Amino acid sequence: MNEHDPPVPVTVIGLGAMGKALAAAFLAAGHPTTVWNRSAGKADSLVADGATRAATITEAVTASPLVVVCLLDYPVLHEILDPVGDALAGRALVNLTNGTPDQARETATWATERGADYLDGGIMAVPPMIGQPEAFVLYSGSRPVFDQYEQALNRLGIAKYVGAAAGLASLYDLALLSAMYGQFAGASHALALVGTEKADLADFASSLLGPWLTAATVALPLLVQQNGTSTQAAAESDSPPDMQTVAIANIVTASNAQNVDRALLSHLLIPLRDLIGPPAHGRGLADMVDLIKKPVE
Ligand code: NDP
User: Which of 11, 25, 169, 228 is a plausible cystine mate for 131, CB 3.0–4.6 Å?
Assistant: First the structure.
């Protein structure tokens, strides 16, 4: 496909908050768009904007070479698509339903057995961001299929291909969500601490917490091992683990004193505490990643 080709027809199955946003982005970019949803009424506004409502799931699947699915979960996907799987032959199935790498791999095999090309995806955006430059969507699976439909997929947000193994997009998606929820947890703890002193939480969040979290991202390279060893950068940094562990102990002590639950923070910091003491000499924050990994059983 190149930029002069007419927009490829696309089917969107699943018109929840996210599926509707996906279909609207395809429509806005001029793609002939067919839509299907269990609760048919959710298609009304899209149909008013030019989408075609498929009366049946078979009609939906066979309407387009590119079939995008965005449902609650994988069991629902199979409940809907298993009965019409053979109709997918020769089409590209792009599954943007959130799931696990195992579910992605199983569904890739399922699709391949039915003669469909398969891409698994992870949407790193909320519905209002779809179609905006700050949205991005991860894809894994068939590289030729990604290349063929990249232009269409870019309508949803920047399309990022992360590898041929079907489970990779899901793995990266869940990893990024884990980082986000970890950040939310830390931010909630911060708000709880400050909230013990009748502070203006809205002002604290906007004027201090937000800028601080943004600034803290400069430390990310310290978490990454270089050439399989702990980064010298971490060991030589101005913020060595021993110093950080003192600060962390103070957070835990202050949490107790302010009557704020310290369990979350203490748990997160167990790996960091393993970095202190003489055996940890020369080790850095990057070692924390290895300490978090479970040993192979
Ligand atoms: P919604 O809850 O809004 O929509 C769920 C969709 O699944 C609807 O189309 C619903 O149909 C359908 N569905 C649920 N159960 C069944 C069933 N038993 N049979 C048939 N259809 C069913 O969720 P979202 O649209 O927000 O999310 C969809 C996917 O997008 C999820 O995997 C989510 O993780 C992912 N996502 C969502 C984001 C968000 O912010 N919303 C952000 C990033 C990813 P019906 O309308 O008939 O109920």
Answer: 25
pLDDT at 279: 47
Going by alpha carbons, the residue nearest to atom 8 of ligand 1 is 16
Alpha helix segments (H runs only) across the chain = 17-28, 44-48, 57-62, 74-81, 101-113, 143-153, 168-195, 201-203, 210-216, 232-235, 241-257, 263-273, 286-292
Ligand 1: nearest atom to the Cα of 14: 9
Q: What is the pTM of this model?
A: 0.89
**Residue with CA nearest ligand 1 atom 18:** 76
Contact 70/96 with Cβ under 8 angstroms? yes
Q: Taking the domains of the chain in order of start, what are their residue ranges?
A: 10-165, 173-291
Q: Between 250 and 79, whose confidence is greater?
A: 79
* Per-residue pLDDT, 282: 58
CATH architecture of 173-291: Orthogonal Bundle (1.10)
> Which has the higher per-residue pLDDT, 199 or 228?
199
